[in-house]
Amino acid sequence: MKNKGQLQEILVATIESIKADKKRVTKVKNGLKKYKILPGTVQLILNEPEEQLKQIDDKFLCLLTEQVYIASGNLELNPENYFSQREIKEVKSTFEGEVQKKVDFPYTLKPAIQVAPDMFLTTIKASEIKLFMDNKLLQYNFETQREARVRVDKNDPNNIIQEVKINKKHMEHIKESIVKGDALPSTLTFNARLGTADDGIELVYDESTMELTIQKGTLLDCLDGFHRVTAIVKALEENPDADMTFMLNVVNFDIPKARAYFAQMNTIEPIGKGHLENIKKERQADFIVDQLKYNSELKSRISPSENIPHTTSLLVSLKTLADAIDEVYGIEDRVEAIKTANYLKEFFNKLFYAFPDEFLGDVAAIREKSLINANVMFYGYVLLSKRMKDEGISLEQLPNIVSKIDFSRDNKQWQEYKVLDKNKNVVTRAKQGVYKFFKELDLA
């Protein structure tokens, strides 16, 4: 292994050489974000690498080295030249990083309803769950749940360590579905363990405001859904915008009752089976997007985030598609929403099959020179679908209509319609320009 002092010298020189390159800097920041290292912390190191590197520990140094190595391509920074494979693996699996936001109990959830003296129903955002985990407010209780494994402490053979038994394949599947926005809202159960609050009362409920407050000192156990909780944390580390809502049971049980409840729950419905219904959407457009997410070629291609990276195969953001459908179709009736969902499914399938390279192939490569699969173009496609429907034009004509459009970023029309700026980048308010273009498009 090479000397760590030598590593710092090479690291300083490499950082100095790449810190003006925005793409490489972003790559380093994104790579470290999954280890809960804040972009601001990384920027501080990039600004003063020689001074800051003296203050970080070996674990941080290992992770930083790896990400600068990946971003720069400097072979001298291969982490395996300075750290053993075991060290690298250990760092990646144990590094805790920084907590982005501090939170503690008391913490209020609302709206909530009381279904029994010690049972409540409410909802919780994925970001709140991550907040609880980051601040160690939510834990797995081995006394009330199954699926634990034990191992012997290598430093003390008499010390038996309990570990949560995680099905990694199952957890990764859940994580990916959350990142892609495909996950259905499901129900979690947290137990505010009886007898643990500082003042003796774990939960305070205000019926008039429908507020449920978890009191200071309460030990909050994840009684059901720990795989999902783990997946939620990893999903938000990968994509902070993948913030969905979960239904939540909050109970206030002692250990024996928690065990009995857990056993009863998994007799009725085994863990890992059965998603509950989607939480009711406010707009029919959201319902239509849900149908497209699961029943069309848009499946796994709708991003929960508004910002779609150029390198991804995702095509359109959930917000763009839902807003476009709401603005263009203005549907308020569920029956009409179902008909429109079926029509749009046929429309987008026809579009994608007619241009498979552009929508189903190497999307990122096409995106570099063309707007055909740009997120903003979906405002236009939704408007086009409505025009064809209203004007009685068969969807069989869709390939001919779209093939006549010059989607090239070099096409000056896009600047005239204020879709692109002079540098051929999509402008902030491109939507109106796209709408205008498709309204004026000759469909004959």
Topology of this protein?
Layout: H1 4-18, H2 22-33, H3 39-47, H4 49-52, H5 58-72, H6 85-94, E1 107-109, E2 113-116, E3 119-125, H7 126-134, E4 138-139, E5 148-153, E6 156-164, H8 168-180, E7 187-192, E8 203-206, E9 211-214, E10 220-224, H9 226-238, E11 245-251, H10 255-268, H11 284-295, E12 302-303, E13 316-317, H12 318-329, H13 334-354, H14 356-359, H15 363-369, H16 377-390, H17 398-403, H18 413-416, H19 430-440
Helix pairs in contact: 1-5, 2-3, 2-5, 7-9, 8-9, 11-12, 11-13, 12-16, 16-19
Would you mind describing this structure in some detail?
By secondary structure, the chain is of the alpha/beta class. It folds into 3 domains: 4-94; 107-268, no CATH class; 284-440, no CATH class. It has helices spanning 4-18, 22-33, 39-47, 49-52, 58-72, 85-94, 126-134, 168-180, 226-238, 255-268, 284-295, 318-329, 334-354, 356-359, 363-369, 377-390, 398-403, 413-416, 430-440, and strands at 107-109, 113-116, 119-125, 138-139, 148-153, 156-164, 187-192, 203-206, 211-214, 220-224, 245-251, 302-303, 316-317. Strands 2-3-11-7-10-4 form a 6-stranded mixed β-sheet. Strands 1-9-8 form a 3-stranded antiparallel β-sheet, with no helix packed on it. Strands 5-6 form a two-stranded antiparallel sheet. A hairpin with a 2-residue loop joins β2 and β3.
